[in-house]
Design brief:
The chain has 8 helices and 18 strands. It folds into 2 domains: 161 residues, Fructose-1,6-Bisphosphatase, Chain A, domain 1; 110 residues, D-Maltodextrin-Binding Protein, domain 2. A 7-stranded mixed β-sheet has the order 5-6-7-8-9-10-11. The protein is an alpha+beta fold and 292 residues long.
């Protein structure tokens, strides 16, 4: 598919500028995520030959099968955009990036996948000038897609199925904070003392544990208010969900209180600590309550 003008700013990724149609790219990402979901589900609740990577995180045949589908599709549809993918990076592929590039995590939440939980996702995100602009987060076991192009939407779709038309997709909006307290989202696999300490003095009324990038999606669709993460993450873990949350009106802030940036090739695309918020306007009051 040709790339047509959508964003007012062209970006330079190689020897020539590209004009990016965010909604068209979102459709491509969604179709590839659903196709990858079908390949991944062939290994669900089956022997997927789990093993450890060099960083001790798990990988299995489902990760590789999903990534193969996505990378082949991106090469055919968006050949001018560089791609940084989790398993290729783990295998030693050279780090690439640019002013516009794609981040791929074929199975975010591999531990949940291996445990037979449905809370794992396929993540595909587009970064432009350090900001996540397009994102597809697909949960194949739950048969649900969250997508950000021109705006943020969610819709049901089966692995390998056809995307519904735009009229059948639900627009989503991160909720505005009320006075009754925060719903905090944390990880099944990565909760640590720093997260607990951060939340302890906030006006939190409920904590929920959710796997993978579904935490970003829950903030984006109005199911939560805050997601703090102090453990290690990579850009491919967060870019797609971050794009969806921002499109829904939320924000992800780094340790300096600035929007999380992408394209950190010098650190091999590793993120620092961050806090995702559904309502940016609620941050001063929440942090003020924490200091009180």
């Amino acid at each position: 598919m040709p790339l047509t003008l959508q964003d007012p700013m062209s970006v330079q990724t190689s020897a020539r500028p590209l004009s990016l149609n965010y909604q068209a790219i979102a459709e491509d990402f969604a179709e590839l995520a659903v196709a990858a979901g079908a390949a991944i589900m062939l290994f669900y609740n089956a022997d997927s030959h789990a093993r450890e990577k060099g960083d001790t995180s798990p990988v299995c045949d489902a990760d590789l099968a999903g990534e193969a589908v996505i990378l082949a599709g991106l090469a055919a549809r968006l050949p001018d955009l560089p791609v940084v993918s989790e398993e290729a990076a783990a295998a030693g592929a050279k780090s690439i990036g640019g002013d516009a590039f794609i981040l791929v995590d074929p199975v975010d939440g591999t531990r949940e996948f291996l445990a037979g939980k449905g809370e794992f996702t396929v993540n595909i995100g587009l970064v432009v000038h350090g900001e996540p602009k397009v994102g597809a987060v697909y949960a194949p076991a739950l048969e649900q897609m969250w997508l950000a192009g021109d705006h943020a939407v969610t819709f049901p779709v089966a692995p390998g199925g056809a995307l519904p038309p735009a009229a059948e997709r639900a627009r989503i909006q991160a909720r505005r904070q009320t006075q009754d307290g925060l719903v905090a989202l944390t990880s099944w696999s990565h909760t640590d003392p720093r997260t607990s300490a951060f939340l302890e003095n906030l006006p939190v009324k409920e904590r929920r544990m959710i796997g993978s990038s579904l935490k970003f999606c829950a903030l984006a669709d109005g199911s939560g208010d805050i997601y703090p993460r102090f453990g290690a993450t990579m850009e491919w873990d967060t870019a797609a969900g971050d794009a969806i949350l921002r499109a829904a009106g939320g924000i992800v802030l780094d340790r300096d209180g600035l929007p999380l940036r992408y394209g950190k090739a010098a650190t091999k695309f590793m993120n620092g600590s961050f806090v995702a918020w559904a309502d940016p306007d609620a941050i001063p009051a929440a942090l003020g309550a924490r200091r009180a």
